[in-house]
């Protein structure tokens, strides 16, 4: 059976087709001044393989690309137009605990957005904090003796 196994290696069909990229939405910050800049960026991204939709918002300097694309390739294609581009660095303000902390607040950010940075969370899971809150006047379900 050794010769049969040897010959079967030549007959097997292997698929070298790569896996399809997952559907993604890529948000990029691009400084655009005029309609020409907007058209150039939109055309560069629309011509990429796998792109389904492209939304350009010149007022916010934002480009949203949806499709089966690699985010780094989209960023590279936008930069090839000669514009300064980076991934969208902002998140909605209501998702941040301390929106006015240093490094978070950015006056160039669109209305209602702040810069996405790592910050300390106010909630703690220390046992002594939980014990103190049990007998608090603010706790409605506190000790019934009080």
TrEMBL record:
- InterPro entries attached to this UniProt entry: HMA_dom, HMA_dom_sf
Q: Which PROSITE patterns match?
A: HMA_2
- Which SUPFAM superfamilies does its entry note? HMA, heavy metal-associated domain
The HMA domain, residue ranges = 23-86
Cite the entry's keywords alphabetically: Metal-binding
Protein name in UniProt: HMA domain-containing protein
Organism of derivation: Hevea brasiliensis (Para rubber tree)
């Amino acid at each position: 059976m050794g010769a049969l196994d040897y010959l079967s290696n030549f007959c097997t069909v292997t698929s070298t087709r790569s896996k399809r990229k997952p559907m993604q939405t890529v948000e990029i910050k691009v400084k655009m001044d005029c309609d020409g800049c907007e058209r150039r960026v939109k055309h560069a991204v629309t011509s990429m393989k796998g792109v389904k939709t492209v939304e350009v918002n010149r007022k916010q300097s934002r480009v949203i690309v949806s499709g089966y694309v690699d985010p780094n390739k989209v960023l590279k294609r936008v930069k090839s137009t000669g514009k300064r581009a980076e991934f969208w660095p902002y998140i909605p303000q209501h998702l941040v605990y301390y929106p006015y902390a240093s490094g978070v607040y950015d006056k160039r950010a669109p209305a209602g957005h702040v810069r996405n940075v790592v910050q300390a969370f106010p909630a703690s899971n220390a046992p002594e904090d939980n014990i103190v809150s049990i007998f608090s006047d603010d706790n409605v379900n506190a000790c019934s003796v009080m």
